[in-house]
Amino acid sequence: VWWMLAGALFTAGAISLFLAAVDRLGPTRASIGATVEPVVTVILGVALLGEGLSGLQLVGGVLVVAAVATIRRES
After folding, report:
1. Angle at CA of residue 25, ends 68 and 59, nearest 5°
2. What local confidence, expressed as pLDDT, does residue 50 receive?
3. What is residue 32's predicted lDDT score, i.e. its pLDDT?
4. Does residue 9 contact residue 17 with C-beta atoms inside 8 Å?
5. Distance from CA of residue 10 to its chain's centroid?
6. Residue of 74, 2, 71 whose CA lies nearest to 31
7. Residue 20 burial (10 A CB sphere; 0-12, 13-18, 19+)
């Protein structure tokens, strides 16, 4: 039961932080920043939990970061 409470709290915290970012940065910049979230999650999983990282996952992460960099240049 404790994990359900923790999940709800973390979800509420993440949504609150995203909405605060929308207020401060605007919706476009906040959404671009949120695009990097999966990459950060994988990095934390590898660094803190010892998860494995395949070559395909690495290529996907590089593509996400490249897309964010491209979007930021155009906006």
Report:
1. 15
2. 92
3. 84
4. no
5. 14
6. 71
7. exposed
